[in-house]
Amino acid sequence: MRCIKTLKVKIILVIEILFFSLVITREANAQFVKAPGENIYLNTFFVTIGAEPEIITSVGYLHKIGRQSGTLNYQLGGSIKLAPIIISNGSCRANFLAIANWKMSEQWQNSIAASMYIVHDHNREGRLTGTGFELRANPAYVRKRWSKGFDIRWQYTPFTHIKHSEEAKETFDDRYSEGTTGIQGPKDGWYKNAANRVGIGITGTTNVGNHSALQISLGSLFIIQKQGILLAFSHAQIPAYLELSYRRW
Amino acid sequence: MKRKKYFHLIRLLPLLILVMNGCAKNTETPGNLVPPTADQDSSLPQIKIHVAGHDRSIHLQTFGNPANPPVFVLHGGPGADFKLLLPLKALADNFYVIMWDSRGAGLSERVSKEELSLESFDEEVSQVKAAIVPDKKVTLIGHSFGAAILARFTARHPEQVEQLVLIEPGKLDNALAPKSDGGAVSYLDGQDFFWQNELLTSSDHAAADYKAIEVLPKSSRNWTCNNSIIENYPMWRFGAYHYYIVLQNAYKLPGDYNWAKGIENFKGHITIIAGTCGALSEDFQRKTNLKTLPGASFTSITGAGHITLFTDFTEQTIKAIKNALH
Question: How far apart are CA B324 and CA B322, in angstroms?
Fold first, then answer.
């Protein structure tokens, strides 16, 4: 009986750790390689502009949580990501952010970030609202005034709700010979495994004064589908992203 | 106590995800996002053809009396379907009209990369002819990329073709100077198409085809006189993968490739029809294809563009085709 109880406690602890690992992330759009020279992760405000390849911008805030330690520190926060050119389409994403900053050695540090998000868009296809998460790791070589490293990310939107537009419904019209009826139209509702993409890039940060830093990241953002990686406009894959972030703490 | 409640909530999360996962739809299930293809829906008008080593179901519809002279109508794109060309069924009063979607495009069965070589399109037209009108010469009407395919077929099989009507074909002889940017989507127009990757990415064909609903009308700007988007863009289902592979293959063609090479052996009548607006309009045809096909008749439809030939200028286009057909 005691063994089962101990096991139960352990399982709960594992779930808690997993939950925090997922939830504790770096915000997903503003980069967050730790600013050079920082040993303590402070409350931080950030702004990002970028192209993924659509123009995006995001603003957010990260709050330090728990006791600061030499090897592992946490921040929680939130951000809003927008596609400003198509803002009239309601193209935005709200992120709940959590970050674990891990000092692996004197010169190597890793920022492991997770965001859970709700994202929206409406266009000719219909109204789309999704929920998902993004994991992002920035292992970086850190010096006093600068850092350079890798930007590795995985974004997964497991569920997207689609309410189809009239244009989408019309694609089902006039398909059959006279007198034959077929499928009536696209199905509104929740779709699973809706979006999934991977990013690999490099990133660099430099301090600007004592309380702020600039960060640039660039790399490739792509999907892997049944036919392979299709780096083609036809599949909305112009496989590059570029981000510039400003942080102030 | 609060901590215990917190743990209970965490434990409910996987259950909630499992339930949602069980209830949610699959983007690739036929009929969920886009209309099913011929192989997925037996009630679609269709035939099966053997091309590039595979039996494939193609969405094909016939109009008119089979005893009348046959006319094949082939869409453009690459990747589009014959919904745009449906007004041409008006030709059925004197002809037996046959329209189909190419393999991998429209509502025809999706195919592999290996099945979309240039040669395979030649085989496809031959197979459709063998299945529908094996013993008759056919009149061919092609739009855009479909016109290039049919010009190539005519050059290689002149004995099987009665007449050839090319509606705003792309450049048949690559060696000629003018370039065409027809069908291109600007970076700004593509913003929403890219943003959607936050919500929907393609794992196979259906989601990629669905996303064309957003972007395809925006490709129509340079088909018009005033750089506007054509809102009523008729389409059942775009073949995104077909488009990707066929364009890749086209880019690999030599700089002096001529789709109509050998067409001088064709003794039938050739007509080119074009509007006066957009990238493949009259001006472009005079600088390119009318030089490649010097014996061709030419008809211009004032005010029409690549798409509006079949939407806003239907009567004029049908009249021009009827005049061309003897």
Answer: 5
> Sign of torsion, CA B152 B155 B160 B166?
positive
- Show the domain range for A126: 2-248
Which pairs from B38-46 meet CB under 8 Å and 24+ separation?
A: B38/B107, B38/B108, B38/B109, B39/B109, B41/A182, B41/A183, B43/A176, B43/A180, B43/A181, B43/A182, B44/A175, B44/A176, B44/A182, B44/B107, B45/A176, B45/A177, B46/B108
Q: What is the pLDDT of residues A35-82, one digit of tens each?
A: 444 544 688 999 999 999 999 999 999 999 887 777 888 999 999 999
B241 phi and psi angles, rounded to 5 deg: -70, -40
Q: Does A19 touch chain B (CB under 8 A)?
A: yes
> What CA–CA distance (Å, rounded) separates B265 from B273?
22
What residues contact residue B132 under an 8 Å CB cut-off, 6+ apart? B47, B60, B62, B70, B98
Which chain B positions have a beta carbon within 8 Å of A187's beta carbon?
25, 31-33
Q: Which of B99, B197, B236, B242 would best serve as a mutation to test chain A binding (most A beta carbons within 10 A)?
A: B197
Q: Classify domain B46-182+239-324 by CATH architecture.
A: 3-Layer(aba) Sandwich (3.40)
Q: How high is the pLDDT of residue B51?
A: 97
Check: CB of residue B103 under 8 Å from CB of residue B169.
Answer: no
- In the numeric block, which tokens belong to residue B189? 């127009």
> Which helix (H) or strand (E) segment is B48 a member of?
strand B46-51
Are B191 and A54 in contact (CB < 8 Å)?
A: yes
Domain ranges of chain B: 46-182+239-324
**B277 falls in which pLDDT band (50, 70, 90)?**
very high
| Model pLDDT, residue A39 | 46
Among A156, A123, A112, smallest CA distance to A24 is for A112
Q: How confident is the model at residue B284 (pLDDT cuts 50, 70, 90)?
A: very high
Q: What is the ipTM of this complex?
A: 0.90
Tally A–B CB contacts below 8 A: 193
Under DSSP, the state recorded for B12 is: H
Number of domains, chain A: 1
DSSP A116: E
pTM equals: 0.88
Pairing of strands B70-74, B138-143: parallel
State chain A's maximal CA–CA distance in angstroms. Answer: 76
Nearest to B216 by CA among B225, B203, B206, B229: B229
Q: What are the tens digits of pLDDT across the range A8-41?
A: 544 444 444 333 333 333 333 444 445 444 544 6
**How confident is the model at residue A19, as a pLDDT?**
39
**CB-based contact B189:A211 (threshold 8 Å):** no
Q: How confident is the model at residue A237 (pLDDT cuts 50, 70, 90)?
A: confident
pLDDT at B99 over 80: yes
- Contact between residue A244 and residue A48 where contact means Cβ atoms under 8 Å apart: yes
Q: Which A positions 61-100 lie with beta carbon below 8 A of chain B?
A: 83, 85-86, 89, 91, 93
Q: Give me B258's structure tokens.
A: 């001529």
